[in-house]
Automatic annotation (TrEMBL):
Organism ancestry: Bacteria, Pseudomonadati, Pseudomonadota, Betaproteobacteria, Burkholderiales
Family: Belongs to the protein N5-glutamine methyltransferase family. PrmC subfamily.
Highest taxon of source: Bacteria
Binding locations of S-adenosyl-L-methionine: 118-122, 141, 168, 184
Gene: prmC
Family annotation (HAMAP family): RF_methyltr_PrmC
Molecular functions per Gene Ontology: peptide chain release factor N(5)-glutamine methyltransferase activity
Name recorded for this polypeptide: Release factor glutamine methyltransferase
Domain Release factor glutamine methyltransferase N-terminal residue range list: 15-75
Organism of origin: Herbaspirillum robiniae
Role played: Methylates the class 1 translation termination release factors RF1/PrfA and RF2/PrfB on the glutamine residue of the universally conserved GGQ motif.
Statement: the UniProt record of this protein carries the keyword Disulfide bond: no
Length: 278
């Protein structure tokens, strides 16, 4: 492995070939360190790194080699075709969650109202508001720091979203009911080995696990949904790979109709939901 500081004087093409990460991550961090685009990386392939640039690149490589997620290092992640700022205060948006966005958009009537519960970076709410300018989109989170990130993402993507600081339904007393409630809540079981592996080690633990059986927040969302959904409205929730049957059970027990689960691109039942009987 070539040490990054030895990249001083090397061409960008050489750095890409000999840097310590895989090709994609090398490219992302090189573009970030030099503040250049992917196209510029190609057109400037014979440009040589200065010492200060090599030192900055070395610092980025070392952070990644310690396991820090690329999204936190560069401070951004693409989701649903949009760019989102991410910080360690919010989960990193993942492609799996695009299924929840698509299902929500498909069930949101013209001029309808949607609520995103536990919004984090705002990825779900902003993606929906950006796609459906006719709709009124609201989002809540119990973390003030997360809401600050979400508000910035809504502004950057020109997506009007009404953000609220709230512990689940707490701040919604008297609010007009919604046509769709969508949520990607904490659902990892306390003590799950994945919490100490990979990117999850760096993400906010309270956004990952309910510190219980993985279903406690899902139970709260299902139990309170009836009071905040319009008749015929939909409740849609992302959950763990092995929780679909349990979540369908919660929905059925609460009197929801058309209860079902949908599979993500990996063919895993990733989202479950139901419609409030009219």
């Amino acid at each position: 492995m070539q040490h990054a500081s030895s990249f001083a004087g090397c061409t960008l093409a050489t750095v890409l070939k000999t840097a310590p990460l895989d090709a994609l991550e090398n490219r992302i961090l090189l573009c970030h360190a030099l503040r250049i685009t992917r196209v510029q990386l190609i057109t400037q392939s014979e440009r040589r790194l200065e010492l200060a640039e090599a030192d900055a690149l070395q610092a980025l490589f070392e952070r990644r080699l310690r396991g820090e997620p690329i999204a936190y290092i560069v401070g951004a992640r693409e989701f649903f075709g949009l760019d989102f700022r991410v910080t360690p205060d919010v989960l990193i948006p993942r492609p799996d969650t695009e299924l929840l966005v698509e299902l929500s958009i498909g069930r949101l009537p013209q001029g309808g109202r949607l609520l995103d519960m536990g919004t984090g970076s705002g990825a779900i709410a902003v993606a929906i508001a950006h796609s459906r300018s006719d709709a009124a989109v609201a989002a809540l989170d119990a973390s003030a720091a997360a809401l600050e990130v979400a508000r910035g993402n809504a502004l950057a993507n020109r997506a009007p979203v009404d953000f609220m600081l709230s512990d689940w339904y707490q701040a919604l007393d008297g609010a007009t009911p919604f046509d769709v409630i969508a949520s990607n809540p904490p659902y990892i079981v306390e003590g799950d080995v994945h919490l100490s592996q990979g990117d999850l080690r760096f993400e906010p633990v309270d956004a990952l696990t309910d510190h219980a059986d993985g279903l406690s927040d899902l139970r709260i969302i299902v139990a309170g949904a009836r009071a905040h959904l319009k008749p015929g409205g939909w409740l849609l929730m992302e959950h763990g790979y092995d929780q679909a049957a349990a979540v369908r059970g919660l929905l059925s027990a609460a009197g929801f109709a058309e209860v079902q689960s949908w599979r993500d691109l990996a063919d895993i039942e990733r989202v479950s939901g139901g419609r409030l009987a009219q």
